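Friendly challenge for the regulars: who can give me the structure tokens for this chain first? No prize, just bragging rights.
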Amino acid sequence: MSNLGFRVLERKSNIDKNIVRAYKDVVTPHISDNLNRLFAGGSKLRPYHKEGKLLGVAITVRTRPGDNLMIHKALDMAEPGDVLVVDAGGDKTNAVFGEIMLRLALKKGITGVVINGAIRDVNAFSQSSFPIYACGVTHRGPYKDGPGEINVPIQLDGMVVNPGDLVVGDEDGIVTIPNQIVEEVLEKANKQAALEVEIIKSIEEGTIDRSWIDKTLEEKGCEF
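First reply, four minutes later:
Bragging rights claimed.
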């Protein structure tokens, strides 16, 4: 019988690299709006890096809070273009990712890390363009005992992430796109971006139609 709580799986799905690259200039609000606002990683996951957009395919990790054994294993398994997405229970008692792991990730060609937990060596991240998102910072280090699982469905502050999903992060936070619908969401997000360009243009020209506000209030029975 296998040791329950210890499981390492291969990732079965991937996304065409051209599709990944096409998301480079797509902002997370446009992605989120076209996922009906259901796939956001929550406001607790904040960027700690100097600059740079997070973009890549998820390799997922579920670990006991405060333990990074399986995160180290996932680092060894990851391929260039992967994003390490870790559910460490949202706990900030022990940091599970630091500068040594940052350097390993850079060497492997990993394009970013998301930690539902804490990091340390924050000065190294604040001076780097390597994207990292976490719940908080603590100097207290991790345990390396397990248990944990790799390439299983996880959740980050209510956002479900499956191995092979596309992960995008910018100044507004983290969002994941299920790998089956990445092309559909890309098309819709690009259309929204084009529409917003026209809206901004109409604001500058003074031609914007704001009649929808009063119409909505009337439909709600509001007196004004």
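DSSP finds seven helices and eleven strands in the chain. The two ends are 70 Å apart (CA to CA). Your move, everyone else.
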